[in-house]
Design brief:
- The protein is mostly beta strands.
- It is about 10% helix and about 45% strand.
- It folds into eight domains: about 120 residues, no CATH class; about 80 residues, Immunoglobulin-like; about 80 residues, Sandwich (Immunoglobulin-like); about 90 residues, Sandwich (Immunoglobulin-like), CATH 2.60.40; about 220 residues, Single-stranded right-handed beta-helix, Pectin lyase-like (Pectate Lyase C-like, 3 Solenoid); about 90 residues, Immunoglobulins (Immunoglobulin-like); about 250 residues, no CATH class; about 55 residues.
- Strands 81, 82, 83, 84, 85, 86, 89, 90, 92, 93 and 99 form an eleven-stranded antiparallel β-sheet that branches. A ten-stranded mixed β-sheet has the order 44-43-45-48-51-54-57-60-63-66. A nine-stranded parallel β-sheet has the order 47-50-53-56-59-62-65-68-70.
- The chain starts with 8 loop residues before the first strand and ends with a helix.
- This is Right handed beta helix domain-containing protein.
- It comes from Methanobacterium subterraneum.
- Pfam families: Beta_helix, CHB_HEX_C_1.
Amino acid sequence: MTNNGNNGINANGANTTITWNNVTSNSGSGIYVNGADITVSDNTATNNQHGIYLNNSTGTIQSNDLADNQYGIYLSSSSANINFNRIAGNNVYGLYCTGNGIVNATNNWWGSNNDPSTNSSNIYNNGETLNYNPWLVLNINTNPVTTTNNSTIAVDLTHNNAGSDTSPQGNVPDNIPISFFTSLGTITNPGYTRNGKTNATFSRENVSSGAANITVALDNQSLQTNVFFDETPLAIHVNPIGGLYNRTQNVTLITIDPNGTSITYYATDGSDPLVNGIIYSNPITLNTTTILRYVAVDSEGNCGPQYTTTYIIDTTPPNATADIKGGVYNSTQTVTLTATDNIDPHPVIYYTTDGSDPTTSSTLYTSPITLQMNLTTRTIIDLKFIAVDQLGNMGLIQTETYILTLSIVNINNNKTYSLIQDAINDNSTLNGDVIQIYSGTYSETVIVTKKLTIMPVSNNDVTIQAADPNHNVFTITNSGNGSIIQYLTLNGNINLQANDCTIYMNTITGNGTSGIITSNSVNNAIIYNDITCNGFNGIQTNSSSNTIYGNTIHDCVSGIYSENSNNKISSNDLTNNLYGIWTYNSTDNIQFNRIAQNTYGLRNDIGTVNATNNWWGTNNPTNPNDIWIVSGNVNYTQWLVLSVNASSTNSGGNSSVTADLTHNNQGEDTTPQGHVPNGIPVNFTTNYGTIVTTSYTVKGKATTILNLGSTQNATVTTAASLDNQNVSTTGFISTGTAILTITSTAIDNSTGQPLNITHDMPLNNSVTWLSAVWINTGMFTDELQVIVDGIVVQDKYFYNAAYTTWQYSYSTSVFNAIIYANQHLPFISSAELTNFWNNLTTTYNLTSSELEFIQNHGQEFIDNLTVNIVYPGVAGLNLTVTDPHSNVINLNFPGNVIQRTSQVIYTGSLGEGVKSFAIATTKVTEDVMQYWWNQYSSYQTGDAMNVAYNTFLTALMIEYIHDRIADNITTPLNVTWSRTSPAIVSISEDPYQIYETLESDHSMRMTVIGTTENMRVFNFITSNSISFIEYEVMNSSATMELLYIYNNYNTYVEIFEENGFIIIKSLMNDNFLVIDPETSIVRDIDTVNNLYGGYMNGVDVQRNLGKNISL
């Protein structure tokens, strides 16, 4: 029925069967049905508006071929079983459902093996209940895969996507054409389905050998398979073939053996596979250059041809270099790139000049690259290039940064100059600009007439000498007020005629006149300069209200010459001058300077100066060598004295010795007022063990490491010498002891009094494990175990006093309710409180009077338990700071006294609470860590010992990682460190909180020896790393929370200075970061919980242990 103006078949009525019809090219429906219990099967409907249309009908649609219609099947308010149909290539929808109905459309062929719903033109459903899963899939099978002549290719549509054989239930229509194609030989084509299957025959014809690629296509699905053939029996096909490859290859050997009884042998070392061969069973993995030999042997012992195939596996990338390295250049540069490779003689290079990473789509290098310089502005070119060999191996991206510029740059406008003066004079240079200078020696006499910062480019060494030896290098006029000169080496002087300037960290040498001259200028800061070998004075001033601080001045006539001045001169190192300081008619304040090894320490004419609390090179300064009062008055009644102190604690074989310049001759601690310069070398000796002979002052003290060689007690004499003073001390050094005290409001069963126990722990080992664990044993009764190094050294039972008072007045359910309430109330908000009490009443069947009792007396059933440890060490840093909002905060950092309190609520768990401490007296080495890690199986004997060991090990891991970081940076920083008193980290877990915290200073009780700057870098890295280690362990730390707040809410973080410290404070949670700018030690603190680490609520610490080890 074809080409009808409406429907091909129009059926109205019930129990109609429509079968074996061919309906094509009808403008309406191929088959239109309106009735119940209709059967439509084995029809072919193509090029119709609707292949089959069911309207208000029920029935079965099965084994129909519905292709190339606008709609394959259209259901309007109909229910049907639609199975084993071919529904493919229809232009709008294969199946369109609208209205109400139930449709089972499983096991149909939709033209592809893919989920039919992924193709929007397959199925549309609006309101019907539709199931289309599973669906039929096309499969292919080859038999045999290897042949000497022919092979059969079988294709079937008798399985669905779930893998089930659907043949017993039905089949797709017969005579569906399936196409077959081959790359070699011939194959019968097409095939037509019969009961859902069809076959095709492959023949090699006149082709002697090869691998034929067979393609099977039906509708939108194609499948491929291979037939390997050879006229020679037992021939072997290899895939991939031999050649050059840039990655590991998995080689498949396919033997031409239709009977499937042969065995294939292979060798990868080039030897005879029949002698040294391996039986082939799976693909052979080749990851290096290989000579592969292989042969097949049939069941009768006949051998096929023996093959040799060579695979060159080249995974080595080529390398590219530039003949001109990145750097600073003052002319146009032409750069030649060269690539080399281990195999490819001509690897290629791709490059970029805009800073982006090169790819094979970037510019191909063919000739030298010209980098053009601009004579007026600085040009920065990031040349990035990569070499690629013929196999596609790509080398590392190489980067060379070229700065094409004149030597002087105004970084604010990027203009460049040949002379510093030209940069200053340029009208485009404005007040506040920064002039940077590239490495080199410059000869100029510079007049600064604007407020500028003049400095080297970072990591560049700049020397400027006066163009005329009789003139200055720099003259800063009063129009240059507020200028900064820093980090320069000057052969000449600075003449300062301006106010509010900073002369910082310059080296001024050999100029034949004064190094820095201030002329009628005020409020300047001359700090941390190194001035030497000047023919006159290091610093010469006739000005007032200036700060001269931290300078090192030697080999001058006068280190500092002050005339008609009133300045603050402090913490300068003045040695080997004729006069350390010469004051003339001045009223300077001179304190905390090192004035030693000069002919005259201080000369004063006419004026009155305060020269108290200086170090004169001796504990007994004399007149006139140290203080020469020509006329006028000098107050020097207080001077600093050198003392030496040796720690009395032997910490794992090491101790510390400290030379102290923080007290004066009257016994006053001068630390709050200031200190001598950092970096003064102090020499040490000992009569026992060995000692690091030289250490450097930091904040008035120099500390060194005394290695005693063992932990045995000894009487030791140590001495320190500085300038003309030697001091010594003799003391008894012994192994330290930590004293543990545990107190509680709970009642000790054995005494009837509040719990109070003590235990002394000799710290003889590198690491000591201490845990206090409390374990519930019954209703409001607990057991307390004190564990030292895995041994229970004290075992106490205690109970809650309130329970003994009330236990006979209320039922057990009331006390269970109290335990539950005490466990959860701290986490209940006020808005949730009423609902909480209602739920508690219902759960425990409480009366109103019982609930009232719980509300009024529940807290009496909680006891406090306090762990207190006193151990050898130094007191913690205590700061009182006032923030910008006038809030006064006490910051108390950990020291040699530990006090931690938990609440005991008698929860009924076997391990209710634990406080574990890892006490390290030495460096925690890998051997120490491994020893304790290996004890794991020994301490899994019960919940209490298990949790004690795991929390201790977590604390120890923090110390271990910290010490690993410290060791890794000692060599590059040229420092030495040892732990000279115990460092402690603790983990605490109780029903209310879990935390990790330091219990010793953030220095981790390390004595560090090195130059002042290197020690500062070392201290910063090691102390700052603690918070990041804690974050890995606890997923929380004060520093990390501060960083998070700053990154997301930076207005909630404020920075201020207090007591010489830089304070960073969070306004959201009162976390603090405290940085000591002189030692660079970073300390963090959570002031809410009084912790110096990570804090969590209700999480099990033990689960982090594996994560720790991975660090």
